[in-house]
Design a protein that fits this description.
Helix content is about 85%, strand content about 0%. It is mostly helical. Helix 1 crosses helix 2 and helix 2 runs antiparallel to helix 3. It is flat, with a radius of gyration of 13 Å.
């Protein structure tokens, strides 16, 4: 939990609040989905992988635009 809040604080140092929070939640969502696939043998169907890639693309786009 503390690591998560520290990462949010680091994101907010270089980005506006809305962008930093969106990046933080996006990383959490994509990271959780990836860990679920790797550690808990969750589904790896194409649509799920595409959805994770879209989240990561959005994070990159937000970071580049701020």
């Amino acid at each position: 939990m503390m690591l998560s809040l520290w990462c949010l604080a680091m994101a907010l140092k270089t980005s506006p609040v809305g962008t930093g929070y969106a990046i933080w939640t996006g990383i959490g969502a994509a990271g959780t989905a990836i860990l679920g696939i790797m550690l808990f043998d969750e589904s790896q169907d194409g649509f799920r992988i595409l959805s994770i890639a879209v989240i990561i693309s959005g994070i990159i786009g937000l970071k580049l635009s701020s």
